[in-house]
Amino acid sequence: MSVITIFCGTFCNESLLIREVAKHTGYKLLTDEDIAARASVISGMAENKIKNAFSAKTSVFNKFTHEKERAVAWLRLALAEMLSENVLIAGFTGQLIPREISHVLRICLIADMKFRSAAAMKAQKLSEKEAFALIHSQDEDRASWAHTLFRIKDPWDTSLYDIIIPTDKMKEDEIVTLISENLRSEVIRPTAASQKAAQDFILSADVEVALAKEGHSAGVSARDGAVTLTINKHVLMLNRLEEELKAIVTKVPGVESVETRVGKGYHQADIYRKYDFELPKLLLVDDEREFVQTLSERLLIRDVVAAVAYDGESALDMVNEDEPEVMILDLKMPGIDGIEVLRRVKQTRPEIEVIILTGHGSEDDKKICMELGAFAYLQKPVTIDVLSETFKKAKEKMQKATDGK
């Protein structure tokens, strides 16, 4: 027997069709949620951070921490370990399976926008404009995923699938029958070569995770214990990087040899940097742009990753989307002021430590802020040493609270 993967647009009657295919074939259904849950267990990363890999939006901190890349590495390993014959993989993760594993029937379910919009309007009681915006956002996630994996902008590109099925133009039983008939094709039956490729997939996923743990990202392929690493960004000292990567990979069980090479992206302007996912994540909130940019650069020198917001509304959005650990917050800003930002942060994300840094506050302001849960209240001007030490203590407090959960 073989493997089925189904990638689909939303509001294409996909949920019912996936259940019917699993029921008709007797295949075990694995969803993105199942694989993300397993990836969370084996990695120690929070499941919501694993699932963030499916989103087109990337955290402002990702260029330093590369959480998205690490999440994809762990998803690939979880999938490789769970991959067996007679499974139906529904969602994003099925596209992680290498083409060398030929006993996979790759299905795409999609419908035209008119059909999808009508379905969204009915299911979620949306206006036509709201339905279109929702579907567009969800399609952006799928397009971003396809571009990340294949450098293809169209998630419905025919090169990615064996069959593309228009769910608005075929009946449910016809779709199930079509998939079942193709599942019996000789082309996708397991062979010794495809089963060996599945084993190679596990090894390459193990290697990718080993590299990610050490802050590295490279293309990985494996065949019969021989691993090839592809470096796709320019590096000033290539030989040193190659030796470091080889030292990591040779320790992975099952690796017999390691070869490195440069890829197509190596000659572009991007510079290869080893990433540090333990860097603390700080959000600076201040409407004095020159001050906050300078402060951000000085903190980065001290290995503190600082994102910047220039008003309270933006800060609250970033708290929800980017998950900072500590905030340094000004009080006097246009729109939502610092006290109101502090109040809302402590209501919704109490684990975030907030340091008030202001040049205009009063003793009454200080009292209110401390009662609301501020970690510290500092007056401008303040030395970078004092601010760094305060941030360090706030980070330690936040970490202890997180570890204690």
UniProtKB/TrEMBL annotation:
Gene3D superfamilies reported for this sequence: 3.40.50.2300, P-loop containing nucleotide triphosphate hydrolases (3.40.50.300)
CDD domains registered for this protein in UniProt: REC_YesN-like
Keywords for this protein: Phosphoprotein, Two-component regulatory system
Domain Response regulatory: 281-395
Domain of life of the organism encoding this protein: Bacteria
Positions where 4-aspartylphosphate occurs in the chain: 330
Protein's UniProt name: Two component system response regulator
GO biological process: phosphorelay signal transduction system
Protein's UniProt keywords contain Repeat: no
Pfam families the record matches: Cytidylate_kin2, Response_reg
